[in-house]
Write a structure and sequence with these properties.
Chain lengths: 390, 468
C-alpha cells in the first residue's frame, strides 16, 4: 500500500508552475487540456515501462546465469562470458532510468533502486583492494559467515542507509576489480575465482551468485508492478487524472535529463576531473550508461517501444505547437549526437585542460542536455502540466 | 508513568481573547505585519521557490545564475552521494570514517530536510547525534570518545557504541480541559567500544536541522542581530536574546554564531567543514586530521582518503549548495485560519524571538542573496528555554539552557519533505503543538498564553505555522 500512498502524495503535491526557475501561476490555458487527448499516451507509457523492465530483467537473468557458471566452473571463458553478460545487461537497464524520480515502484520509499544501481561502490567494504589485501566482507568469514541473498540485502542497509554492497556496480567490481589503469578497465585476475589460488575464491563466487539473485528478484518486483492486472502500480497509475500521470512522466524524463544526466553524471565529472568519478568506473563502460539514459528519454517522448512508434508526448505537443515538437526532436537528436561523440573511455575524456578534445565534447553534451531540459519545460508548459526541475 | 507538569501554569482562558481584541483594535495590520505587502509570502525574497513536493527543500535560489547552478549541482552530488572507505577507485569520494555518524550529508538531511530520533529500539540512529564534553572541564571534550559520539565505523575499527533512548510521557491539560501528552527523552550508551564514558559526561542531543535559507541567514548583517539582542533585558519584557560570540576560525575575528542549535558556528564554511569531520570523518582544509582520541588507535591508524579527503573545490561547492538551497513560498496565506493564526502569533508574543522580517546585507559573490527582505521567523539569538529543554551542556557562550531561535520557514512542509513532524533540538516534540508546549524560560508567558487560548485560537496558530 505504500506505493499508492506515494502516488497520492505526488498527485497532490504539484503546484501551478511550469519552468526551471519557476514562478507562480504558470500554465497555458490557450491550449486543449491533456485530459482530452492524453489517455492513449499514458496507456502507451505503461506498455513501454513494462516492456523496458522486462528486457532489463531478461538480460539480468542471463547475467545471473553467467555468474552462476563462473562460480561453478571458473575459467577464462566463463569469466569472459560473465563480463560480456554484464556489459550486455547495461543498456536495457539504463533505458529504464527514465522511469525514476517520481516515487514509482523503482524508487518509492521501499523501492529497490538503491540496491540495483547505487554508486559509488564501497569497494573495501566488500572485497580486497590495493593496500588492504584482507579487506571486506568476502575475506571475513568470521564476522560474515553467510553470504545468502537476504544477508546481502541486510548488509546493504547497515548503518541505516544504503551501503552499496549489492547491484550492478557491486557485480562490476567483482568482475573487473579496481580500475587503477589510466587507459583500460580494471584487471581482476581469474585467480580470484580459483580456490587453489585465492583462499576467498569460493566465498567470492557465492557473493557474486547472491548478487545475481538479488538483482533479478529486485528487477522482477519492479517489473511485476507494471503488469496491467490485479492491484499493481500500473493500475493505480492508469487511474490517475491524465494530467497528473503526464506530470509524473515528465518529471521522470526531466529529472533524468537535468539533475541526473547533465549534472550528476556529466557536470560533476567535468568539474572534479577525478578520473574515476564516473558510474561504471571498473569496466570503463560509462559511455554506454550515458547513451542509454538519453535513449530512455527519447523512447518516452516518442512513445517508442523498440522500433515501434506509438502514442507519445510528441503527438500531444505536435497537436498544440508543431514547432515546439520539432524543437524537442532536434534537441534530443543533438543530445544523442553530443553524448555519442564523447571519446571513450570516459575517464580519459574528462582529463586535461578545457581545450582537450574530450572535455570539449563533454561540455558540448552538457550544453545539449541543458537545451533539451529547457525545451522539456516548454513542453510541460504547453501541455499545462506542472513541472519543477532542479 | 504519567504525571502532570502543567497544573500551575494554566492561566485564565480569557487572556488570549483579550490580547487578540487589544491587537485588533490597537495594532493596525500595517503596523505590526505588512499585510499590504504583496510579497509577504515570499519568505526568502527573490530566492523563493514554489514547490510543495517531497523535493520542496531541494531547489537552488530562484534568482541564481547559470554558473552558480552548475556548482550547486556538483555540491548536491557531494552532499547526496555516500562517502566510501579508503582506498577506493573513486578517489575523490573515499575516506569515510574511520568513525562516523553517517555516510553522506543527505542521510541525516534527507531531501535537505530535518532528521529525527529513531522511534523504536530496532531503528538505527540516523539524523540525531550527541555532542559530548567533560564533566570536569565543560570546555573540553570527553577524554575517551571526543566531542561527538559516533555509533558507526568502517570495517576493522571498533565503533563507539549504541545510543539508546528511553521516553517518559508527561501529561498536561489546556485551560479548556483538553488533555495533551509530551515525550521527554533520556539517553544511555551501550556496547561501548572504548571503555566507560567519563562519569558525569555532558551530553547534548541534536537532530540534523533543515537546510533551506542558510545563505540568507548568513547574509543578515551582524549589526541587525545585535540590534535585536537585549542581553540584560533592559526593556524588561522577560526576553533577553544573546548573541553567541565566538572566534571565526577562518578569519580569526570575533563573530556571532548563527548556525546549529546553539548558534555555535559563525559561517556555513565552518559549519560544513565541521560536519564533514565530525559526522562523516572526512578531513578538509579546515580540519586536516581525523578526530581520534588517544585510545582510538585503530581509528588513528586507518588508511586515509587523501590529505585532505574532500578537495577544496568540492568543499566549496557543498558550502555553495547549502548557501543557495531556497526557501519555499508560504502557502494558504489568504485563508481565514492562517490570517487569524498570524494574529494569534503576535498576540502570544511569539514574534519577540521568532522575528518575522529581516533584511540581508551585502553577500560577497552571491548577489542573489544580497538585500533581500526575508521572513525567517528567527532572531538568530540565544534564549533561555527553561530546565525542561536544557541539555545542561554549555557551548561557546551559550549556557546549558539556552538555544538559538530556530527559523520557522518551511516548518509546514516537514511532513512532506522529511516524512515526519518531529521538532526541537532532539526531535522530542511530535508536532508544532508539542514544540510550543515545551517552551519555557523566556518563552514561558507565551506558552502559558497558548495553554490558555481557545481551541479555535490554537488551531489558527498551528494553521499559520504550517503555512510557513
Amino acid at each position: 500500500m505504500t506505493r499508492y500512498r506515494a502516488l497520492l502524495l505526488f498527485s497532490l503535491s504539484f503546484v501551478p508552475c511550469g519552468q526551471l526557475a519557476c514562478g507562480e501561476g504558470a500554465g497555458n490555458a490557450g491550449y486543449a487540456s491533456v485530459e482530452t487527448d492524453g489517455a492513449p499516451v499514458v496507456a502507451r507509457y505503461g506498455e513501454l515501462v513494462l516492456s523496458s523492465y522486462s528486457n532489463a530483467l531478461e538480460k539480468a537473468q542471463s547475467l545471473a546465469s553467467a555468474l552462476d557458471e563462473l562460480g561453478t566452473v571458473p575459467s577464462t571463458e566463463s569469466f569472459s562470458r560473465a563480463k560480456a553478460a554484464w556489459l550486455a545487461s547495461r543498456p536495457d537497464y539504463l533505458q529504464t532510468e527514465a522511469f525514476r524520480f517520481y516515487g514509482g515502484p523503482i524508487d518509492d520509499e521501499d523501492g529497490p533502486e538503491g540496491r540495483i544501481n547505487a554508486w559509488p561502490m564501497d569497494e573495501v567494504y566488500m572485497d580486497y583492494v590495493e593496500g588492504n589485501p584482507m579487506g571486506g566482507i568476502i575475506s571475513n568469514s568470521t564476522q560474515y559467515p553467510d553470504l545468502a541473498p537476504d544477508t546481502l540485502k541486510a548488509l546493504n542497509l547497515i548503518g541505516g542507509e544504503e551501503n552499496i554492497a549489492t547491484g550492478y556496480h557491486a557485480i562490476e567490481f567483482l568482475l573487473w576489480g579496481q580500475d587503477s589503469s589510466p587507459t583500460g578497465p580494471g584487471a581482476r585476475p581469474l585467480s580470484d575465482y580459483l580456490p587453489a589460488e585465492s583462499p576467498s575464491a569460493a566465498r567470492r563466487a557465492t557473493y557474486l551468485r547472491s548478487l545475481g539473485q538479488v538483482l533479478t528478484s529486485d528487477l522482477a518486483s519492479v517489473r511485476d508492478q507494471w503488469v496491467d492486472s490485479g492491484t499493481t502500480y500500473r493500475k493505480a497509475f492508469a487511474a490517475l487524472p491524465v494530467k497528473t500521470a503526464i506530470g509524473l512522466i515528465l518529471t521522470g524524463i526531466g529529472s533524468l535529463s537535468g539533475a541526473e544526466l547533465t549534472h550528476e553524471r556529466l557536470q560533476v565529472a567535468y568539474d572534479t576531473k577525478s578520473q574515476e568519478d564516473e558510474h561504471s568506473c571498473f569496466s570503463d563502460n560509462t559511455h554506454v550508461d550515458h547513451v542509454n539514459d538519453e535513449l530512455g528519454i527519447v523512447n518516452v517522448y516518442l512513445g517508442r517501444i523498440g522500433d515501434d512508434d506509438g502514442p507519445g508526448l510528441d503527438d500531444l505537443v505536435a497537436a498544440r505547437d508543431p514547432a515546439l515538437d520539432r524543437e524537442m526532436k532536434e534537441r534530443m537528436l543533438a543530445a544523442q549526437q553530443a553524448i555519442g561523440s564523447i571519446p571513450k573511455p570516459f575517464d580519459q575524456a574528462l582529463v586535461g585542460d578545457d581545450a582537450a578534445p574530450g572535455r570539449i565534447q563533454i561540455k558540448a553534451a552538457i550544453d545539449a542536455l541543458k537545451a533539451q531540459t529547457e525545451t522539456l519545460t516548454k513542453v510541460a508548459k504547453i501541455l499545462n502540466v506542472p513541472l519543477n526541475l532542479e | 508513568m504519567f504525571r502532570s507538569i502543567w497544573s500551575k501554569e494554566a492561566g485564565p482562558s480569557s487572556l488570549v481573547g483579550s490580547l487578540l481584541l487589544a491587537c485588533a483594535l490597537g495594532c493596525a495590520p500595517e503596523e505590526t505585519q505588512p499585510a499590504s505587502d504583496p510579497n509577504r509570502h515570499l519568505l526568502g525574497g527573490a530566492t523563493t521557490v514554489f514547490d510543495t513536493s517531497q523535493n520542496a527543500f531541494g531547489y537552488a535560489a530562484r534568482n541564481a545564475g547559470a554558473e552558480h547552478r552548475d556548482r550547486f549541482a556538483v555540491g548536491n552530488s557531494f552532499f547526496k552521494q555516500n562517502w566510501v572507505t579508503a582506498p577506493a577507485s573513486t578517489a575523490g569520494r573515499d575516506g569515510l570514517g574511520p568513525l562516523f555518524n553517517a555516510r553522506s550529508c543527505s542521510s541525516c538531511h534527507l531531501n535537505d530536510g530535518r532528521g529525527r530520533p529513531p522511534l523504536d529500539a530496532d531503528e538505527p540512529i540516523i539524523g540525531l547525534l550527541f555532542r559530548l564534553s567533560s564533566a570536569t572541564d565543560t570546555r573540553a571534550r570527553e577524554p575517551h570518545y571526543g566531542g561527538q559520539f559516533q555509533p558507526y565505523s568502517i570495517n576493522g575499527v571498533p565503533s563507539e557504541g549504541v545510543p539508546r533512548i528511553a521516553r517518559t510521557e508527561l501529561m498536561g491539560r489546556f485551560a479548556d480541559g483538553i488533555a495533551f501528552t509530551l515525550e521527554r527523552p533520556s539517553y544511555t550508551f551501550e556496547s561501548l567500544g572504548y571503555g566507560p564514558l567519563e562519569p558525569g559526561t555532558l551530553v547534548s542531543p541534536r537532530v540534523a536541522p533543515q537546510m533551506i535559507g542558510l545563505g540568507l541567514l548568513e547574509a543578515v548583517p551582524e549589526s541587525t542581530i545585535l540590534t535585536l539582542a537585549d542581553p540584560d533585558d533592559d526593556d524588561q519584557d522577560g526576553i533577553s536574546g544573546r548573541p553567541n560570540w565566538l572566534t571565526n576560525t577562518v578569519t580569526g575575528t570575533r563573530s556571532i554564531g548563527r548556525f546549529g542549535w546553539k548558534a555555535n558556528q559563525p559561517s556555513l564554511l565552518e559549519q560544513t567543514a565541521g560536519a564533514f569531520l565530525g559526522d562523516m570523518g572526512i578531513t578538509s582544509s579546515l580540519h586536516p586530521t581525523e578526530d581520534c582520541t588517544s585510545e582510538q588507535k585503530m581509528c588513528a591508524g586507518a588508511p586515509t582518503g587523501g590529505v585532505p579527503e574532500i578537495a577544496e573545490a568540492q568543499l566549496n561547492d557543498v558550502v555553495l549548495y547549502s548557501r543557495l538551497l531556497a526557501v519555499p513560498a508560504q502557502r494558504d496565506f489568504e485563508t481565514l485560519a492562517v490570517k487569524e493564526g498570524a494574529q494569534v502569533f503576535l498576540a502570544l508574543g511569539c514574534e519577540n524571538c521568532h522575528v518575522q522580517q529581516l533584511l540581508t546585507g551585502e553577500a560577497m559573490e552571491f548577489p542573489e542573496l544580497a538585500h533581500q527582505t526575508i521572513h525567517p521567523y528567527s532572531d538568530l539569538l540565544l534564549h533561555d528555554m527553561g530546565e525542561g529543554l536544557a541539555d545542561n551542556r554549555p557551548d561557546a557562550e551559550a549556557t546549558g539552557s539556552e538555544w538559538r531561535t530556530p527559523p520557522l520557514w518551511g516548518i509546514g512542509l516537514l511532513s512532506t519533505v522529511s516524512q515526519h513532524t518531529r521538532l526541537l533540538h532532539d526531535g522530542r516534540a511530535r508536532n508544532v503543538e508539542g514544540a510550543i508546549l515545551w517552551h519555557a524560560g523566556e518563552a514561558l508567558k507565551s506558552k502559558e498564553a497558548f495553554v490558555a487560548a481557545s481551541v479555535a485560537e490554537r488551531a489558527a496558530l498551528v494553521a499559520f505555522l504550517e503555512s510557513l
